[in-house]
Give the backbone structure.
Amino acid sequence: MSEREIEERPWSEFQEAGLLWWINRSLHLFGWAIVVEMNDDGHIERAYPARCKFRGFAPEAETRGFRRLTTYLARQSQALLKGTYVETASKEQQHGDEGSDEDREEGS
């Protein structure tokens, strides 16, 4: 993969955006979680997948998680749309490209 397709980011950014909480909400369903261990300075020392017995988070954590994730999405929405299917589909419509026969058969 090219550098344009993958850009390594720090775990702290992932966590602060609310993405760690969001992913763990989904993983809890299967008895899994991504655990992040932090040092006394608040820096992440390591992260790893783990089995867990609990499911979900306390209401306060849920509220905080939704706020963080909503803020992240609001700030990143234009960047997220750039280069996505939405942009590709828009360009295809402008050029009159309606997709392949297979796409039309599948209802895409």
Summary: Residues 18 and 64 are 8 Å apart (CA to CA).
